[in-house]
Amino acid sequence: MTSFFLSKNLFVDSNIFFKLDKKNNTLCFISSFGKVEFCMYDTSCFVIKEGQKLSFFYIFSEYEKRIKKRLILSKKKKLGSLIVFFKQLLFRLSQPNFCSITLIGMGYRSQVENGNNTLSLHLGFSHRIDLQRPNNVRFFVRKIQRHHEIFFYCSTLCESKNLGSTIIRFRPVSPYTGKGLVWTGAPILRKEGKGQFKR
């Protein structure tokens, strides 16, 4: 019995390393900005690796081609959506998404230690705070005028934002003194103290 198939090709940049695990039907993409693993839960979709090209296939029998036209149409749409998803994923892996935090306050500083694997924070406490670097995140510290800034680079903006939000919780900016951790460029809403109110 003859077979009919739908296919789409995806070309991967040479700066991105990827591997195909046919046993678990998973794809792994690795770049200098992060690592992403994707599991193909749809077992009817076959993936073939040829150099820097990935080919996705849906195979149908001649009977399904004549009878199940709606099924073939839905698989064709799903295949197109899958290719668009992987193109967006590879674009994010090739260009880093980053965010930055500014440390405002006397003695507030940060530094990178242990070969860019540990972020040390001095936030006015009696102890310092050490954070281990996640596998898919890179950060570095830069001093601008009197303030320190921490930059987070990651394959997805969501992960870098999550790490930045975790750090901000250690010392949120105070509305009275204006000191603390804040997103770079974000406005600081100040409040008047009790001593400044007129009687």
Brief rundown of the structure:
With about 200 residues, this protein is of the alpha+beta class. Helix content is about 20%, strand content about 40%. Strand 5 and strand 6 form a beta hairpin.
Would you give an account of this structure?
The longest helix is centred in the middle third of the chain and has 26 residues, at 69-94. 22% of the residues lie in helices and 42% in strands. The mean pLDDT is 79. It has helices at 62-67, 69-94, 157-168, and strands spanning 3-11, 17-21, 26-31, 34-39, 45-50, 53-61, 97-104, 109-113, 118-122, 129-132, 137-144, 147-154, 180-183. It is of the alpha+beta class and 199 residues long.
What is the CATH topology assignment of the largest domain? Outer Surface Protein A, domain 3
Lateral arrangement of strands in the main beta sheet: 11-12-7-13
Overall pLDDT confidence:
79
- The helix/strand order is EEEEEEHHEEEEEEHE
What would CATH call the homologous superfamily of the largest domain? Ribosomal protein L6
**Strand count, sense and closure of the main sheet?**
4 strands, antiparallel
Number of helices: 3
Percent in strands: 35-45%
Radius of gyration: 25 Å
Tell me the domain tally.
2
